[in-house]
Specification:
The protein is mainly beta. Helix content is 0%, strand content 51%. Strand 5 and strand 6 form a beta hairpin. The protein is globular, with a radius of gyration of 13 Å.
Length: 118
């Protein structure tokens, strides 16, 4: 069983930046895909960004050009650099990991709150 622990959330003004980190209790080398999801109040959880073991990245249209996902297999971490934050980015952000290239994610973190004030 692998545990994922997110950190780096907080309160920031619109236009500001935050960097989220996800630390795994074991090696992330086994995971073909690592991702960041978010869930805003009253909304469904949505994919924000994902990255494969080969470094291919995928972003939601709403964050393209503002967010950058990266993974460090040596440190067993995945990060999400978030720039030009807007109030609509306010949500709980979750880290997730998947062994297969497609399908459901196998492991989830407990989430970290990001609040962007206008």
């Amino acid at each position: 069983q692998v545990m994922l622990v997110e950190s780096g959330g907080g309160l920031v003004q619109a236009g500001g930046s935050l960097r989220l980190s996800c630390a795994a209790s074991g090696s992330i080398f086994m995971f073909n895909v690592m991702g960041w999801y978010r869930q805003a109040p009253g909304k469904q959880r949505e994919l924000v960004a994902s990255i494969t073991s080969g470094g291919s990245r995928n972003y939601a249209d709403s964050v393209k050009g503002r967010f950058t996902i990266s993974r460090d297999n040596a440190k067993d971490t995945v990060s999400l650099q978030m720039n030009s934050l807007q109030p609509d980015d306010t949500a709980v952000y979750y880290c997730a990991a998947r062994k297969r290239l497609t399908g459901l994610y196998d492991y989830w973190g407990q989430g970290t709150q990001v609040t962007v004030s206008s």
